[in-house]
Amino acid sequence: MPDRTRAIKPLMPANTWFPFDPLLTDAQARGMLDLCERYGSYKMYSEEPTFEGIGQGLPARWDAARNFIRSGGRFGRSEDLHVLAARTNYFRETYAYGDEIRIDGIQPFLRHEGFVEAARRLHRRPVIVPAIVYANLLVPGQELAVHTDVPEFRGVSRKTHPQWLLVAMRHSRFFEDWRMPIATGVSWYHDSRGGEFAFYPDGPEAAPVALPVRFNTAVLLDTDTVFHGVDRVASEKGDVAPLEPGMRLAFAGAGEWCIVDGEREVARYRWDDLRFSISWKAYCFRDETERRLWSEHSDDLTVDVVVDRLVRDLRDKGKLGASLPEDRELVDVIIDEYIRYPAPASACVPAIGAAKVSSRAIR
User: What element of type H or E holds 229?
Assistant: First the structure.
C-alpha cells in the first residue's frame, strides 16, 4: 500500500484572491454593525482552549505567538514581552458554526452567494459547505501576527486538537489526502485608521499586499495557505491598553465600547477607534463522495499517526535522535521545521493584480 502521508504537493498559495467592492447593499452592511452591537460582549482570543497530549498547556496558536515575539511582527518592532502580548490578544466571538446560529440575522451572510461562487473558483471544487462565521475586534494599538489559519483534516480539527499542530500538518504537506480545503472571506463594515489586511499571495518570500479597511468591502482567499496578518490599528500615542487575559470588550451603547475586567472599566472607545471584521469559512469538496467521507468519518486520521509521521521525518533529516526531547522542545522543533514565516518587511506592494470579482457580478 502506498504511503498516503508522503509529501505529494508543494505548499504554494493558490495565487488567486477575490476582492469584493461592494460586498452587500449599504443597508445590509450597516446592519452588520447593528448585529455586532447586539451580540454585545466579546472574549479574548487567548481564551481559545488548549488540549491534553503534545504541547499541553501551550497557547492555541503557539506557532504564531512565538514567531511574533521572536520577529517583532511584520515590521520587526522590538517591545517588551507584556506589550507584545497585549497587542495581539484581540477580541473574538463566533456568530455561526455549521447549523448552529448564535445570533439572528447572520443567516444571509452565512449563505452569501458571492462568497460561495468565489470559493468554487478558488479551489476548483463545486460542492461548497459554509461552516463558520466569526467576528474579530481590535482596539487601538493592537495588531494580528502574521500567520496562516488553522486548517482542518478528517479526524483532526481545532475542536479536539492543538491548533499549532494542525498548522504544522498543513505546512508539512504529509496529510493532504485528509485535508479539507477551506475558503475564507474577510469583510469590513466601517473605515479604519490603520489595521490594513496584509497578506502574501505570491508566497512568504515575495512582497506582501496590504488592503485598507474600508466600508462594505471584502476579500476571499485560501488563508490556510497564504500568510496574512493585520497591521497595527492607529493609536494616538502609539500605545495599547493594559490588557490581561480574561478581559472582555463590551458594547456600552451610544456608539461606545469598553474593555472590562469583571466590573472594572479598563478603557473606552468609539466605533471609529476600532477595527471590526467578519470572517466566513466554507469547506470545499470535489463531490458528494468526498463530502460523505467527512460527514461519516469513514477515513479519519488520528493524532498518533500525525505525530509519528512528523517524528519519522525529523529523524530522517537528522533533526531528532533516537530519544525524543522534552515535550515543549519537540513542539518547537516541529514548528521551526515546517512553518517558514515571511521575514519582517518595511514596505508592501499596492493591491493590484488580483482576480477581481464583484459580488453583484457573481451573485
Answer: strand 228-230
